[in-house]
Amino acid sequence: MYDFLKKLGIKEVNSGASVGGEAGWLETGGEELISYSPIDGKAIASVKQANEKDYEKVVEAAQEAFIKWRLTPAPQRGLVVRDIGYELRRFKEPLGELVSLEMGKIKVEGMGEVQEMIDIADFAQGLSRQLYGLTMHSERPGHRMYEQWHPLGVLGLVTAFNFPVAVWSWNSLIAGVCGDTVLWKPSSKTPLTAVAIMNILAPVLDAHGLKGVFNLAIGKGSQVGEKMINDKRLPLISATGSCAMGRKVGQAVAARLGRSLLELGGNNAIIVTEDADLDMAIRATLFGAVGTAGQRCTSTRRIIVHNSVKDKFIGTLAKAYAQVPIGNPLEEGVLMGPLVDQKAVDDMMAALKRVKEGGGKIIYGGGLASVTGLEGGFYVEPTLVEAPKDLAVMRDETFAPILYIVGYDEFDQALELHNGVDQGLSSAVFTTSLKYSEAFLSHAGSDCGIANVNIGTSGAEIGGAFGGEKDTGGGRESGSDAWRAYMRRQTNTINYSSEMPLAQGISFDLD
Q1: Is 443 within 8 Å of 420 (Cβ atoms)?
Q2: Phi, psi for 250 (deg, rounded to 5)
Q3: Can you give the residue range of the structural domain that contains 103?
Q4: Nearest alpha-carbon partner for 503 in 141, 230, 245
């Protein structure tokens, strides 16, 4: 086994359920889940999954912990998160390497994902002293009115494979300082990163005498996932994944009148105007489309470029694509690793078949990539497609490095193409024109949750609220006031007078 696996406490066979701390691992009764590396297709280690009985134990621990955790002053909860941040700093490199090994993104991206966790820990600690409400003027004399925020309860967290650790931190650390406890179901494609996180947390939780605050249940959708979304003991389900998965989660949670926070698919576009700095646009496009092998929800999937610069843009971008080193993501100098598994490869090839059937033209890539010594890995060529405006497959999100390029003549036409998809996560325009940039950010501009000018679609900062509109689900995580999703609002009115006036001037006296 790799040395960094030992540093992270990964064994050949690991428990798939924990209620936190060194002694918090459960003897699980579910089936064994083997984690395969997309780098070479070989098994890394396995996890003994949680079954329905294990799930019950974890939920009960989370519920019991919530009773005490919610009464812990928020700044003290922030100190726990601070100490988690310290541990993440200690294990930044081995955890980043594990992300690369198990998910396939290059090492610098894996390290960047852990840094994002560290940044969130810092942010959440500061947030623990800023969970503010508003004071409002009452219309009744001798009355004071204000609002306050209370913890919700047990957060049910479902995360995806592409950001196996960062999204956990967005939710868990912020929900933690809000006073919630967390039950985490990670992707079955990346179970070992979840085990590693719980190992990193263990000494911090033990030092603070905590059990049941941060919990883990790795298991089948039928045994863990279905129970979570239908469980009234979980007032909020935060789920990251496909739009199809989000619809299922949203409907199930809504049926029990629970809350859902959905971060779903993206079909992100960049508009490149005739006056854009093409060098900046090319560099942003390359990272946005090729980074993480196109497996980010914010990956750039469409370029809408003015026809006057389209040929030059395509030619320069194709040359840049030809220079992208593809290979083992743990090796220095590699810019693109593998897709996560064979299904991802099959989905990409099926999409490219639809490209040809729909009149699109593949102008670079489109095939499998051969990496010497790693024949069992899932490597593909980053692909450029010159697309007609009505190419049907372009409306779908394919989690792979396919970039569609469409020309336009008028900016209004570009906006129509940009907004003409069901998803609405991230977006960008490259322009030196104040007119175009302001139009893009106006009420009639981008319909996405994230809209950038002269910055690509990928790589959001943690200080802003992250999320999107339309089929992306409407959820917001990370910065700004996203913390409110993990709490319940309460309006309070205090009468400090000796009278009992009613609102709206209503008189209801018995005399």
Answers
A1: no
A2: -60, -40
A3: 3-264+473-491
A4: 141
Residue of 102, 109, 113, 263 marked active site? 263
* 14 Cβ contact partners less than 8 Å away, ≥ 6 residues apart: 45, 46, 47, 48, 191, 192, 195
Whether residue 173 is contained in a domain is answered as: yes
Q: Which of 228, 221, 168, 156 has its CA nearest to residue 198?
A: 168
* Mean pLDDT, the chain, whole residue set: 97
Mean pLDDT across 37-57: 98
Q: How far apart, in whole angstroms, are the C-alpha atoms of residue 161 and residue 103?
A: 7
- How high is the pLDDT of residue 159? 98
Q: Do 328 and 455 belong together in one domain? A: yes
Same domain, 442 and 479: no
- Do 175 and 211 belong to one domain? yes
Find the DSSP H helices in 70-215: 74-90, 92-103, 107-127, 166-178, 191-207
Total residue length of the chain? 511
Same domain, 314 and 419: yes
**Beta-bridge mates of residue 261:** 238
Phi and psi at 479, nearest 5°, equal -90, -160
| 174/185 Cα distance (integer angstroms) | 17
CB contact set of 249 (below 8 Å; sequence gap of 6+): 158, 229, 237, 239, 260, 262
| Cβ contacts of 411 within 8 Å, gap of 6 or more | 271, 273, 436, 439
Cβ atoms of residues 4 and 93 within 8 Å: yes
The verdict on pTM exceeding 0.85 is yes
Per-residue pLDDT at 510 exceeds 90: no
Question: For residue range 357-371, what is the model confidence (pLDDT) as tens digits?
Answer: 999 999 999 999 999
How far is C-alpha 44 from the geometric centre of its chain's CA atoms? 24
Q: Give the pLDDT score at 1.
A: 66
Instruction: Let me know if 56 is a catalytic residue.
Output: no
Count of structural domains, the chain: 2
For 453, the 3-state DSSP assignment is: strand
